[in-house]
Amino acid sequence: MRIIFMLIFATALALIAGVAWACSCPYWRSASDQLGFADVAFVGQAISSTTGRDGYVVTEFNVSRTLKGAHHDVQRITHAPGSWGATCGIDFVQSRDVLVLAKRQGIRMSTSACATPRFAQGDFERAAAR
């Protein structure tokens, strides 16, 4: 009986620890460091979001300014929904300017809560100008 209790306790502890560590974001010392991690950085407005069969969301942005990477008038960024907090999910409010930092993953561009800008937009603009 004691062994069964220990196994249940160990399993529960492993599950809790797994959730707690699932979304562990890096510490960025500067906007330059965070921008260096991104393949693309732009300012734009979310115009639509579509959830795929896999549960991931593709948000389409009208891009007004590109800070890093090739400029495209429209960018499609894949991300986990905000309700998936343990997987660093993020949601975007439509019709509001936002700075987006994204990484290339295969043929897609993706982002997460960990890529949310941690510094003022002006800091990223100065870092991009260097």
CATH class identity: Mainly Beta
Total domains, how many?
A: 1
Distance, first to last CA: 65 Å
> Which descriptor suits the 3D outline?
globular
Q: Which structural class best describes the helix and strand composition?
A: alpha+beta
Beta-strand level of the residues, as a percent range? 25-35%
Count of β-strands: 5
**CATH topology-level fold name:** OB fold (Dihydrolipoamide Acetyltransferase, E2P)
Q: What strand order characterises the main sheet?
A: 1-2-3-5-4
Describe it for me?
This protein has a single domain (27-129), classed as OB fold (Dihydrolipoamide Acetyltransferase, E2P) (Beta Barrel), CATH 2.40.50. Helices cover 28% and strands 32% of the residues. The protein is built from 3 helices and 5 strands; from the N terminus they run ααβββββα. A 5-stranded mixed barrel has the order 1-2-3-5-4. The protein starts with a helix and ends with a helix. Residues 2-21 have low confidence and may be disordered.
Keywords:
130 residues; alpha+beta; OB fold (Dihydrolipoamide Acetyltransferase, E2P); five-stranded mixed beta barrel; 28% helix; disordered N terminus
Strand and helix map with partners:
Layout: H1 2-22, H2 31-37, E1 40-51, E2 57-68, E3 74-79, E4 97-105, E5 108-110, H3 121-129
Parallel strand pairs: 3-5
Antiparallel strand pairs: 1-2, 1-4, 2-3, 4-5
